[in-house]
Structure prediction request, 125 residues.
Amino acid sequence: MNISRSVSLLAGLALLGSLATSASAEDEQFKHAEKLYDTYCAQCHGMNRDGNGLNSAFISVQPRDHSDPKGMGDIPNDEIIEVIKKGGLAANKSVLMPAWGGIFSDEEVDQLAAYLRHICNCGSN
Prediction:
């Protein structure tokens, strides 16, 4: 193996290592919020975060597709936080969306809002 090929291989391995470290740090950042979502939100919003949870067939207003970058990207963060804390009624959404403000801490609500931005890949508003 020549030197330039070895250097390219090492550079590629270093890049893969930094991507893996970045991904695992990102995974750690959202680990708790993902667990909260899976426990409290997935029944309606779905394990794929697409609004097709087990309960969605029985709800007259379809749960929001959290994986939709356009739909989620148009919602300001303060509205997302308000809906998590106060329920769907707070934003003229489904009355069946519970208020989680008495269950989740402010930090957990912020983590969930950031997680929603992460899963829709739509950045923060």
Notes: The domain at 30-120 is CATH 1.10.760.10 (Cytochrome Bc1 Complex; Chain D, domain 2). The helical segments are 3-45, 69-73, 77-86, 106-120. The chain is about 60% helix and 0% strand. Residues 3-45 form the longest helix (43 residues).
